[in-house]
Design goal:
Number of strands: 0
Radius of gyration: 19 Å
Number of helices: 2
Order of helices and strands: HH
Structural class: mainly alpha
Strand content: under 5%
Shape: rod-shaped
Length: 68
């Protein structure tokens, strides 16, 4: 799956990362939390992408059935 880089999203992650380093005072803990955020973000994006593709496939199938 080809991923587009969303500049606004990257900026938000950088701000959150900086805030985490400030709050936790631990780079490794902040890195772990950021990695979890990236995984959750990917999972949510994948879920919505799959849902969108299924909906489009169902629409194409109904259009084919209506043409017959």
């Amino acid at each position: 799956m080809k991923q587009k880089i969303n500049l606004q999203q990257v900026l938000i992650f950088i701000i959150v990362g900086g805030g985490l380093i400030y709050i936790t005072e631990s780079f490794l803990m902040s890195l772990g939390i950021l990695l979890l955020l990236f995984v959750i973000d990917y999972a949510i994006a994948d879920y919505f992408d799959t849902k969108k593709r299924k909906r489009e496939q169902q629409q194409r199938e109904t259009e084919r059935q209506q043409k017959k």
